[in-house]
Amino acid sequence: MATAADAPRTTTLNAAGLVWSLSHRSPWTVTTATTAPPAVVVVVGMLAVVTSMLGGVSGIRVDVIRLPSVAPFPAFREAPAFRNGDECPARGSAEGRVDVAMTLDANYLRGTMAAVFSILQHTACPENVAFHFLASRPDHPDLVAAIRATFPYLDPRVYRFDPSRVRGRISRSVRHALDQPLNYARIYLADTLPSDVRRVLYLDSDVVVVDDVRKLWSVDLAGHVVAAPEYCHANFTKYFTDAFWSDAELRATFHGRRPCYFNTGVMVMDVAKWRLGGYTKRVEEWMAVQKQKRIYHLGSLPPFLLVLAGDIQPVDHRWNQHGLGGDNMEGKCRSLHPGPISLLHWSGKGKPWLRLDSRKPCTVDYLWAPYDLYKAAATALEE
Fold first, then answer.
1. pTM reported for the whole predicted model
2. How is 280-321 classified by DSSP, letter by letter?
3. CA gap 181, 27 in Å, rounded
């Protein structure tokens, strides 16, 4: 029969950010719960401390319980304050305001920071740029705080995008990142932005702008609902499956149009016209067809093409030097297309910050690096 002396006693120590539960029976058991990857090294390093506290007891058994790793939220340098030139309208006035919309996602935050920094650095009127961010969790304290701390002189608007609005409409695509609900938020810009926003420039988080963004924002839409660089030399048929092209009723949607590929990661939208034309519902209807017949493979792009291809206002190709992230499967390096460049776009699987961190960058990734405001962990600790 066990006596009180035989019963295990427990001592809890809190040292070096770890909780140590010491079960007082022979042999001694040290159980540590940690989220740090080098947990074993930390535990062994602490053994001397624990042994000393226990009076030099030998025969200590160490059990390491690994909890799911929680990566620290990235830290960013504060960007310099950019001011308007003499020719710019007063800050806050409706005249000359440039509305830019982007999504806000922890996984792409580093890219978003670089994109915002590049826009402000290259426009003559940075104080007239109004940023609108769509986030599935706008109440995430670190996410919004990071934007405000990095650009303290901005007054960005952050809106909640409800993932449940599209979760039942999304079909699996060739790349997991394309299946995320926030990737579809661009469809709902007109439903999300306030009524005073009548025109908006939507940008993906993997771009840098190296020209004055006002030039793109102010393009003549010529009565169209969307303006974007158009690529009519691309093989348009590859964006849809054989099931689509073999169905006479489905392919008839392009009757009377000359459809060309355009990338929805850079587009100017007439928000008022989008609302009046019911374009959100029209895109959703094609997403419903996709659920039934599997007519495409590429996330949010094809339903845009089905509704708008051949009916957009073309913009100079300089405003979307796209494909720098390679294809959607391997993300191999690509070279720049010949000609002038106003915007660089790392569409595709490979993202410049990931390739630079892995020390396997593509040459074009060095064009992104000057806009990277990320503070490496070691640097953040030193400061």
1. 0.79
2. HHHHHHHHHHHHHH----STTHHHHHHHHTTSSEEE-GGG-B
3. 52
